[in-house]
Amino acid sequence: MSRYPRFRHAQANPGPFGRRRTTRTLPFGIVVAAGCAAVFAATWFATPTLTALWSSAPPAPEAVAATERSVYYSGCNEARAAGAAPIYRGSPGYRSEMDGDNDGIACEPHP
Q: For residues 60 and 54, what is the distance between their CA atoms, to the nearest angstrom?
């Protein structure tokens, strides 16, 4: 007589507590396609943000100088009369000669 008489029967017919879990695995092609779709979606959503960050680089010094020289004011009184004062560095009409304290703001109002 066998030590475990119902062992083979239990293996062949597992009860509700002895059932093995069956794990379903997706086919490799579906996993790869889902991964590609996730990478594409992440790239699609990140591109505008990265483009905005990359394009916010400061302009070249030659471009800034050309912008500043595009308008000429002989002095702060003329700039104030034109409604352009205060003039910030990089803006049209800015000259370092009109910026007395060299803080990047020309023709600033007096306190």
A: 14
Question: pLDDT tens digit string along 74-90?
Answer: 888 998 899 888 898 88
Q: Which residues lie across from 87 on neighbouring strands?
A: 106
3-state secondary structure (DSSP) of residue 87: strand
Which are the contacts of 109, defined by CB distance < 8 A and separation ≥ 6? 85, 86
How many Å apart are CA 4 and CA 28, to the nearest integer?
Answer: 42
Indicate the DSSP class of residue 84.
-
User: Rounded to 10 degrees, what is the CA torsion of 35, 39, 40, 42?
Assistant: 140
Predicted structure pTM score: 0.45
